Amino acid sequence: MPEPLEFDPIDRAGDLWAQHWPDEDPGVYASMRAVTSIMRAHQILIAELDAVLRPFGVTFSRYETLVLLVHSARGSLPLSKIGERLQVHATSVTNVIDRLEGAGLVRREPNPRDGRGTLAVITDSGRDVAAKATAELNRSRFGLSTLSAADLDRLFAVLRGLRVGAGDFRT
Predict the structure, then answer these.
(1) Distance between CA 61 and CA 169 in Å, rounded?
(2) The domain containing residue 46 runs over which residues?
(3) Residue 160: what pLDDT?
(4) Which positions of the chain have pLDDT values less than 50?
(5) 3-class SS of residue 111
(6) Longest Cα separation, the chain
(7) pTM for the whole thing?
């Protein structure tokens, strides 16, 4: 991990933004700082979560898929349903399932309810990896151990508002 900077580059970028576009509404500067902070936090969290999951041979996106299958009623879901639930493109689902299948954590089966569709079915090895990885992520508090429970609740509420406003789901 690189050495920490002596200043907050996002805060400095916000100040420079204000200097270069002084006639903008102050909300623009706050928006720029917020979105840049969210994007940087995403990078930090993915790196940390992937490091926690590396010993289990999965990335966070593969872990999410395993957990989704563990929580499904039969340990299987159509690939289209996986994409819908994880809110990702079908190409991403295919890639994740290819990797998980290659690792022996899931297998593909024809969907008996839809002759053209395919189910992803979690294997016993997949269940084992999901359980062990979940225990480790719980220990790490999903990379958010520096935040209090109250801060996490506030953060969730703020980001949920963003998701609702974007039409991410029905309320």
Answers:
(1) 20
(2) 9-165
(3) 96
(4) none
(5) coil
(6) 62
(7) 0.86
Contact 127, 63 (CB under 8 A): no
Where does residue 121 fall: left (phi above 0), alpha (psi -120 to 50 degrees), or beta otherwise?
beta
Residue 26 is which amino acid? P
> What domain count does the chain have?
1
Tokens at 133, concatenated: 């990885």
**CATH code, domain with 114:** 1.10.10.10
Cβ atoms within 10 Å of 143's Cβ, excluding its own = 19
Tokens of 121: 């079915």
Q: Give the contacts of 120 (CB within 8 A, at least 6 positions apart).
A: 65, 69, 76, 77, 78, 79, 82, 97, 100, 101, 106, 107, 108
| Amino acid identity at 103 | A
Residue 32 belongs to a domain:
yes
Residues in the chain: 171
- Candidates 61, 69, 58, 65; CA nearest to 136 is 58
> For residues 119 and 109, is the Cβ–Cβ distance under 8 A?
yes
- In terms of DSSP H, where are the helices of the chain? 9-20, 26-53, 60-71, 79-86, 90-102, 124-140, 149-165
